[in-house]
Amino acid sequence: MRSVTTSVLGMNLSVSNCPETAEEYDAASKAIGACVDTAVDNDLQHSWKGRFRKALLSAVSKATGNARYSDEDGRFTETEKIYWARVQREADDKSVFQPIVDQVLAATPYEATGSTGRIGKAWLDQAETFLETVAGSDWARFVANISDKNAGFSFEFGEDGTTPTRESIALALKVDDARVSAETRASHFG
User: Fold this and answer.
1) Domain that holds residue 164
2) 172, 146 Cβ separation under 8 angstroms
């Protein structure tokens, strides 16, 4: 067993009796395979579902010609959930979506992320908006700014090699926000 440092309400706390191996985790949870189940659930919840939603809604938009509502700057004005409900409501035959779902599901395999931290929905939503609105050449400036201001932070990039992944953007925004908040708090005392 080991101690793990975590932050709660701005306090760094050392939590003892944390498992160090999958076997210790399974023994502590009294369930064989619990460690793997928890890791897979975490990956599905915080990585796979976002990739699937984005791919599905894009495919539905292309197949139906029914795009998400957006403002004059191209930013979506309806959430993924509201768009999906609207498209289904407006469809004469909801069964037309099943082949699209099946195709996107087949093209979106599970990937183990190895992520040890949770990225909140707000950060992931903001990252999604960035991916939808930021032009390709602006990514280099974004990456440089975040990297310069947050020592040791590194990005994971998508298939094109220049656009950061959704999770990487979300984590960058979270890390940078924590830095700005810490600097602001420190300025109150000096």
Assistant:
1) 119-183
2) yes
Query: End-to-end alpha-carbon separation of the chain, Å?
Result: 40
* pLDDT in single tens digits along all 190 residues of the chain: 888 777 677 677 788 888 888 899 899 989 898 888 888 887 888 788 888 998 999 999 999 999 999 888 888 899 889 999 999 999 989 899 999 999 999 999 988 876 656 677 888 888 888 888 887 768 888 888 888 887 777 788 887 888 888 888 988 888 888 888 877 877 777 6
* H or E stretch at 4: strand 2-8
Residue 70 and residue 127 in one domain: no
Q: Do 159 and 139 reside in the same domain of the chain?
A: yes
Written in H, E and C, the secondary structure of 41-86 is HHHHHHHHHHHHHHHHHHHHHHHHCCCCCECCCCCECCCHHHHHHH
Determine the Cα–Cα distance for residues 39 and 66; give it in Å rounded to an integer: 36
The closest alpha carbon to 44, from 100, 109, 130, 121, belongs to 109
